[in-house]
């Protein structure tokens, strides 16, 4: 068994989901009688899971709103608009099967599990993934290391030589906490902040070469 693994973040790394997340959260805002927010504002709220997303996006809601109700509303609206505009980033469809020849592949996302699995399935990448760990499958979210360690364990892979590939400080922070190497995707919509990365890619198709170069350096 190949014990090395590449764990991918989903939003901003494999898929551009900004528009549909914005649509769904704006429908939640409409449920509370609030006006729509622009895509750039909404995008800046994404990355720390659905609770944080709603907390940030409903700051101007009347006091007393229930997080549980808002999460249910979000799940329904996002389900209805999951793939209106969401698509794989350029190079993802072609490059994942190439990487799957030498690596176990998995997704570790702060997106809720059901939505993450549906996106992977419907965009045709589920078959190359050994595991998907989304919000709720593991009790902790990135930047905690637990979801990454859970994915490795479920896939029978080890920390040694494995990578986390993502566009957000939470991905890099989780990689560092779990002891994985980290590749930052500069084309995504997250922020690196002060988190260090072992490699940076501007386009997904650069990943195989970047990983080979890192192997040669080791
Ligand atoms: O839904 C989120 O909060 C972010 O999801 P991600 O971890 O795939 O970027």
Automatic annotation (TrEMBL):
Its EC number is 3.1.3.18. It is an enzyme of class 3 (hydrolase). One of its GO terms (cellular component) is cytosol. GO terms for biological process: DNA repair. InterPro entries: HAD-like_hydrolase_sf (IPR050155), HAD-like_sf (IPR036412), HAD_2 (IPR041492), HAD_sf (IPR023214), PGP-like_dom2 (IPR023198). It catalyses: 2-phosphoglycolate + H2O = glycolate + phosphate. Pathway: Organic acid metabolism; glycolate biosynthesis; glycolate from 2-phosphoglycolate: step 1/1. One of its GO terms (molecular function) is phosphoglycolate phosphatase activity. Keywords: Hydrolase. Pfam families: HAD_2 (PF13419). Coiled coil: none annotated. Belongs to the HAD-like hydrolase superfamily. CbbY/CbbZ/Gph/YieH family. This is phosphoglycolate phosphatase. The lineage of its organism: Bacteria, Pseudomonadati, Lentisphaerota, Oligosphaeria, Oligosphaerales.
């Amino acid at each position: 068994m190949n014990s090395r693994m590449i764990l991918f973040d989903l939003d901003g790394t494999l898929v551009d989901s900004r528009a549909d997340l914005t649509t769904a959260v704006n429908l939640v805002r409409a449920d509370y009688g609030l006006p729509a927010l622009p895509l750039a504002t909404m995008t800046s709220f994404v990355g720390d899971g659905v609770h944080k997303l709603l907390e940030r996006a409903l700051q101007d809601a009347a006091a007393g709103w229930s997080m549980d109700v808002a999460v249910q509303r979000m799940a329904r609206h996002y389900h209805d608009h999951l793939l209106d505009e969401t698509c794989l980033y350029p190079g993802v469809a072609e490059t994942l099967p190439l990487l799957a020849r030498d690596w176990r592949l998995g997704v570790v996302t702060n997106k809720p599990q059901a939505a993450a699995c549906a996106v992977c399935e419907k965009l045709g990448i589920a078959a190359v993934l050994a595991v998907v760990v989304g919000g709720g499958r593991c009790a902790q979210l990135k930047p905690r290391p637990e979801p990454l360690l859970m994915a490795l364990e479920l896939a029978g892979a080890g920390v040694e030589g494995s990578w986390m590939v993502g566009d957000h400080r939470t991905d890099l922070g989780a990689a560092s906490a779990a002891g994985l190497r980290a590749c930052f995707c500069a084309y995504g919509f997250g922020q690196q902040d002060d988190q260090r990365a072992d490699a940076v890619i501007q386009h997904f198709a650069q990943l195989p070469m970047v990983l080979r170069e890192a192997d040669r350096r080791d």
